[in-house]
Amino acid sequence: MNVNSGFQHQENCTNDRSFIKATGGGAYKFSELFKEKLGISLEKEDEMDCLVTGANFLLKAVNQEAFTYLNGSKEFVQIDHNDLYPYLLVNIGSGVSMIKVDGDGKFERVSGTSVGGGTFWGLGKLLTKSQSFDELLELSHRGDNRAIDTLVGDIYGGMDYLKIGLSSTTIASSFGKATSHNKELEDYKPEDISRSLLRMISNNIGQISYLNALRFGLKRIIFGGFFIRSHSYTMDTIAVAVHFWSKGEAKAMFLRHEGFLGALGAFMSYETHSLDDLVVNQVMPLPVNASLGTDTNYDPLEGDLNGTESIQCSVYRA
Ligand SMILES: Nc1ncnc2c1ncn2[C@@H]1O[C@H](COP(=O)(O)OP(=O)(O)OP(=O)(O)O)[C@@H](O)[C@H]1O
Ligand SMILES: CC(C)(CO)[C@@H](O)C(=O)NCCC(=O)O
């Protein structure tokens, strides 16, 4: 669930109620709990609406928000506001939603996949006994997926299969080596398992995203969601998948504030928080757990999220 801290207190003679905007499944699931324990009503905002509003806001208002990531280096992309749409927004949370965005409030959820962040965390926990997502992610930094995945070279005696465009190092079958008769789970290193899993899931999301972009003729694919967490290997795998399948035609883009699109969108849904009502260069407090430092040296690929600071926004008046 995404909740934001734009806490509002409404009073009139008959009704004294406090509410906060909330989106996602948790806005429904925890509604009663919030009311019972905190006396707060959750005002539900549609999840897809909020994701799109959050992404559009960031892309328009925050300088150096979007970047591409290829071969280990990132490049910020300055997007002309008049040339922002259409794009494919891929939100990788527990599951994955793919949304074709045509404008403010104009979008269609065109696809999705249940193989997402929850799959990485869930399968990874079972297979590696990791106690936290961060531990699992950290394992993947040190792993070598070649110990688990079958590569084209493993099948072709170390050779490339260039006739169909596959090098010997391309993964032919994720987790293929785990079929080995004389090996059990304990014989594989948790870090290698984590790495294979991350590659499998990121690759798959990159591929499905590209196919959907192709379906609608979209050149830009923007990835968000808490799964990415500015993790370089995740972004690299997704970017390579998009590059590989599109033969360089489509670009994967990432967002500095990728994990908070829904919360931002819910925040924006307060009538007084629309983009047009904000002034140029205003420092806008972000929702709880939804902000990054104002440090201009901040590196999203290295940084961690601590959710206590504000974000410097350049907001254009309509
Ligand atoms: N510290 C963390 N703890 C748990 N999961 C994390 C953490 N950091 C990143 N993740 C990843 O984020 C995913 C959840 O992302 P997010 O909160 O955006 O989605 P959600 O709202 O639960 O799912 P959905 O969008 O499908 O409703 C997890 O499945 C996991 O892959
Ligand atoms: C169900 C939601 C939208 C909840 O956020 C998300 O988890 C999701 O998009 N899952 C993928 C479902 C599917 O399209 O197969």
UniProtKB/TrEMBL annotation:
One of its GO terms (molecular function) is pantothenate kinase activity. It comes from the Eukaryota. Keywords: ATP-binding, Coenzyme A biosynthesis, Kinase, Nucleotide-binding, Transferase. Pathway: Cofactor biosynthesis; coenzyme A biosynthesis; CoA from (R)-pantothenate: step 1/5. GO terms for cellular component: cytosol; nucleus. Gene3D superfamilies: 3.30.420.40. Pfam families: Fumble (PF03630). Its EC number is 2.7.1.33. It catalyses: (R)-pantothenate + ATP = (R)-4'-phosphopantothenate + ADP + H(+). It is an enzyme of class 2 (transferase). This is pantothenate kinase. It comes from Populus deltoides.
